[in-house]
Write a structure and sequence with these properties.
Mean pLDDT is 76; it is low at 1-32. This protein is mainly alpha-helical. The protein has one domain (2-149, 184-200). It has nine helices and three strands. Helices cover 50% and strands 3% of the residues.
Length: 204
């Protein structure tokens, strides 16, 4: 997750402006080394939680998600029916994050630029008009040159385990009445915070 660097569209009523103020900052760049970046990530999630409490949809749309850092407001371009569905999918599987990035590239008609190595055109369409300032086109060209010299890792499919028939079918037992489930998005973020906190905590 990273904060949106583009001007936020949430400037109307219904407290969208307050949500935008939380996210519209330039704190999403790497801060020089892995440790500082980890701390910066740790500081972002409490802000996201505060924004979700104000307006969940606007908060999730104002952040970027997954391997491809897809802006939440672009969820439809990745094939999802809601930004909540996109975020939940991204927390389940990295393959879904990669697929969404590919779908976004195709939806924005950037696949030809990528295929033909037109890095400026691709960076402009993917990262916006600030691509030149951040040298995204140069970084893409350098990354392509680097990885073109490295052979692909051989892929060996994992054999599928045989299906063993269930000789003792489970009996359906009605579940007891449970209280309403908490917000799943907050649960996901809470788990990430707990994990990051365990890394940053001093070892005893």
């Amino acid at each position: 997750m990273a904060f949106n660097q583009r001007p936020s569209p949430y400037t109307g009523g219904n407290r969208h402006t307050e949500v935008s103020n939380i996210f519209c900052c330039r704190f999403c760049h790497y801060l020089g080394n892995e440790g500082e970046h980890l701390v910066s990530v740790f500081l972002r999630y409490p802000r996201l939680i505060d924004a979700i409490k104000i307006n969940e949809t606007a908060a999730l749309k104002s952040a970027s998600w997954g391997i491809g850092q897809i802006l939440g407001q672009n969820y439809q371009l990745t094939g999802y029916t809601s930004v909540q569905a996109m975020v939940r999918a991204f927390t389940e599987d990295e393959e879904l994050q990669l697929k969404a990035a590919v779908d976004f590239i195709k939806s924005e008609s950037l696949d030809d630029d990528l295929r033909d190595h037109r890095w400026q055109g691709f960076a402009r369409g993917y990262n916006g008009p600030g691509y030149a300032k951040n040298r995204y086109d140069k970084k893409l060209a350098a990354a392509f040159a680097k990885w073109s010299k490295i052979r692909d890792t051989p892929y060996d499919p994992v054999p599928v385990a045989p299906i063993i028939p269930d000789l003792y079918p489970a009996v359906d037992i009605p579940d007891p009445v449970k209280p309403p489930a908490p917000n799943p998005i907050l649960n996901i973020i809470g788990g990430i915070l707990e994990w990051i906190g365990s890394i940053l905590s001093p070892k005893v």
